[in-house]
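Title: Comparing notes on inverse folding

I've been comparing how different people in this forum approach sequence design from structure. To keep things fair, I'm posting one structure and asking everyone to reply with a full sequence. Here's the target:
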């Protein structure tokens, strides 16, 4: 797939660490000009991705990103909506305030809706483009004690993505979802550490508890690069007949066919 994306402009939200960084690096290696967003600039940027600071829970930042990309490059070919996180505490419905629900939905659902709305006019004018929305296996297999509000926001993202694929297919734009399972990212490791503190458990006990609840046949977390490889394929010309599909990358955890 070397140079398969040469001349294309790609946006990766949350693209400075974890899954987002792995995706940004992979697209860059395939020849794309890559723009990344995050709240703060990365300490290191060895691949020279163009950085736009943004807080995607703020509606106006989506417009700022779109304006800057189109001013600098004049086009947008690939949108990877990767920014997201499980912001709420564990413990189930009684521990979740309105603010917890609001924050999870702003980051994990509304940020995607806003970014797409801001950039889709340019894509529809080109009559080409690819959108990949990064969801989670927890949208189909929620864990009530850990991911209730996060899972609901991502489940909405899955439904939105399917509807968007149906609308945009006739305009030459493909939309797919990638749903990772348990991935070794800084956010995941922080989540496990915080859960250990709040439950007076060890990190090892919490990690094993998460793995037992999720049930991963391969017995380990995924590496971010393993998610990036699938994303790079889905945005490439080799996947030009694939749209409206949700791909699980979960080590076999999904319990259904």
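Reply #1:
Here's my take.
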């Amino acid at each position: 797939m070397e140079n398969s994306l040469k001349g294309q402009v790609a946006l990766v939200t949350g693209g400075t660490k974890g899954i987002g960084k792995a995706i940004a690096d992979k697209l860059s290696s395939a020849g794309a000009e890559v723009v990344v967003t995050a709240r703060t600039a990365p300490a290191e940027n060895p691949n020279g991705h163009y950085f736009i600071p943004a807080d995607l829970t703020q509606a106006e930042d989506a417009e700022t990103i779109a304006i800057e990309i189109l001013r600098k490059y004049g086009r947008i070919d690939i949108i990877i909506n990767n920014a997201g996180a499980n912001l709420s505490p564990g413990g189930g419905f009684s521990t979740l305030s309105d603010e917890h629900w609001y924050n999870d939905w702003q980051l994990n659902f509304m940020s995607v809706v806003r970014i797409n709305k801001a950039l889709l006019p340019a894509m529809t004018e080109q009559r080409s483009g690819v959108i990949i929305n990064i969801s989670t296996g927890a949208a189909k297999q929620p864990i009530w004690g850990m991911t209730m509000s996060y899972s609901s926001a991502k489940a909405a993202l899955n439904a939105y993505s399917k509807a968007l694929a149906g609308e945009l297919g006739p305009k030459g734009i493909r939309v797919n979802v990638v749903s990772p399972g348990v991935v070794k990212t800084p956010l995941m490791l922080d989540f496990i550490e915080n859960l250990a503190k709040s439950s007076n458990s060890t990190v090892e006990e919490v990690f094993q508890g998460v793995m037992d609840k999720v049930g991963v046949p391969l017995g380990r977390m995924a590496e971010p690069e393993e998610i990036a490889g699938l994303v790079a394929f889905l945005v490439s010309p080799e996947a030009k007949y694939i749209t409206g599909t949700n791909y699980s990358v979960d080590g076999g955890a999904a319990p259904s066919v």
